[in-house]
Description:
Layout: H1 15-33, H2 40-47, H3 51-57, H4 61-81, H5 89-106, H6 108-116, H7 127-144, H8 153-175, H9 187-205
Amino acid sequence: MKRKKLSTRRPKHTQDELRELIVSAATGLIEEGGLVTLSAREIARRIGYSAGTLYNVFKDRDEIVLSIESRLLDRLAEHLDTVSLVRDPRADVMALANAYLAFTHANPNLWKILFEHKLSDSAETPGWYQGKIDSLLLRLEGALKPLSDGEGVDLAAVRARVLWAGVHGITSLSVAGKLAMVTDEAAQHLVQNLVATYLDGIEDRGDDPREVSPPPKASRKRR
Length: 223
């Protein structure tokens, strides 16, 4: 009596399972070596499928990276939601800024892809992407709102974006290892200094970023 040969074929995964395998492998690659290490061939090798299988699940590499970015933004939102807010603008903004800095330092290579990854010319940024960014900024707007009472919600939104841009600049230099080119100060000290100085300006002068005049145009001289 002949024995039946045991099948050595890999059990098939569902589309959702494959998506999870691909995103998990791609995330691991980026964590290890940054966006430059991400390739369809290496993802496929890690999950035990052919490279062509990836494109039965995702349209292209951009879509894989966007899926990673979506999860990263969700993780940041969850991280910021753990911050205990005390309804004191200075304490709350400082706590959110410190939490943001800590998250980027804990996930340096993943965080870089949010700003290093450029979509192909034919691709459009999905609507959910800006929605997630706006949702994150709402936390900062809420913390700043007591300083904008009577001045309109719009002013709190503008201030939140100005402050976030400054904090992000410091974190970007820090994560890239370039902060030492500018200062010997630690990133956390710079963030605290920035937040304190900006809030001092709001409290002392009630500054309105919307009223900043554009720089004068340089006169053109004919040769």
